[in-house]
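Re-run with default settings, no changes from the original entry. Doing this only to confirm the output is reproducible before filing.
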Amino acid sequence: MQQAGSSDIGGSRAHVPGYTLDRGISVDRAGALVDAHDNTTASRVMIRLLSPALSTDAAYRRQLRHDMTVLGALRHQHLLSVIQFDDRGAAIVYEWVDAITLRHLIDVSGPLAAGAALVVFDDSLAALEALHAAGVIHRDVTPDATLLDTGGTAILRDAGVPAPPLRRGWRAGTPQYMAPELWAGRPHTVATDVYAATGVLVDALTGRPPYLGTDLTGLGAQHTQGALPSEAVPILARDLVIRGLAKDPRDRPASAGAFRRDVETAGTAFLGATWREQGRAWLAVVVADRLSDPAPESPAIDVIDDDDDTPLPGLAIDSPADESRPGGVGWKVWSVAAAAVVALLVMIFLAAQALGGPGVQVSPSAPPAPIFSPTTAPTDASVPTSIDTAGAPTPTPTTRATATPTPTAPPNTMPITIAPTPTAPPTPTPTPTVTPSPTR
C-alpha cells in the first residue's frame, strides 16, 4: 500500500503532499507533466514539475512568482486554470480537462479543416488577450501547449513556462515558433506571442511549422530572413499569416484582440457567418474520435551517461537520415547528446525526490520560502513585475462543462535541433527508470 501523496511512476517515486501522483504524462524541455488527483476532493489534476534549467534560474523564478500569482486568480475558458503553485518545489498544479493536444491531432489526422484551424487560432488569441490584459506573456505558444477539448474549444496551457533557451543570448521558447527578435535576444512581448500563435495557425493548416531549417542556425535564418510562408496556406489565411509573421514586430497586429477582428473578417468573408459553429463542430467530432483511440504503448525513458549519444525515446529527436515525416529534416548528431542531458536533469530531479529529498512541496498552505541555485543560463524577465498582486484571492479549482478524466496527448513530435545549454549538467548518479504511462 502506497503512502498517501506519493506514487510509483515508472519505478521512480515522487512525493507531492496533498496529491497522489497516478502516472507520468510526458517529459519535455520545460520539465515533466504528471497525471494526479487531490487526496481531499478526489478531483483529477495535472502537475507540471519544472526542469532544473528553469527552476535553478533565479531571474526566471522571480518572474514566475509574478505570473503564477496573476494566473492563480485568472479564470478564462481558453486558459488552463492554475490551481496552485509551489515555489520551493517548483511545481504547478493545473485543472484537468478532457482534451488532446493540437500536435497530436495534426500528427494523427493531418492538417485541420480551414474553419477548424481558424477557430483554434481565434481561441488562442482570446486566451492571449486575457493573459496580456493581466500583464502576463505566454512566451511559448505551440501545438503542444494548445489543448482541444470535446466541445471543440482550444485551451492554452503552460503560460509563463517556456522551454529553456537553447543557446546563450537567445530567449526561451520553441525554435519552430520563435519570433525573429527572440533569436537576437530581445525580450518576449505581446508581438512575440502573436507571432507564435500565427506559426501554430500555419502548422494547423499545413501539418508543419512555418519554417524548416536543417539546424538551429538555418532555422533561425528562416525566421529572421526567410520568405513568409503565406503561399503554403489557403487563401483565407494568407493575409493573417503575412501580418502575424511579419519580421518587424511593429508590422504585426497591435494586440491579440485586434487580430481577432481580422480573423472574424476573414472567416465570415470566406466561410460565412457561421464559420465558428461549423469549425467547432468539426473539431468536436475529430477530438472525440481521437480520444476513443486505444492509447499507444509509450517507450521507457532511461537515464543515460553524459557521453552516451543514444536518443531518448519520446523526446522527438529525429536521426539525421529521417526526412520522411512532415517537417522532418536532417538534424546534427550533437543535438541528440544535448537532448539527453536535458532529460537527464529532469530525471535526476525526480529521482532526488524519491531518494529521500524534500520532494515537490505542493500544499494547500502557503508555500515555504524559495530555494535558489544561481545559473549562467540566459534568463527572461521581459514581463513587467510592477503589477500589484497583493491580496489576490486564493484560487480554487474550477470545473469546465466538457471536462471528464482522460489523458492528454503526448509531447511535440516535430523534430527539434537542440544545442548544448550554457550550464554544465551535474555528474549523473544511478537513478530509477522513469516510464510514462501510455498517452495519446
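The radius of gyration is 20 Å. DSSP finds eleven helices and ten strands in the chain.
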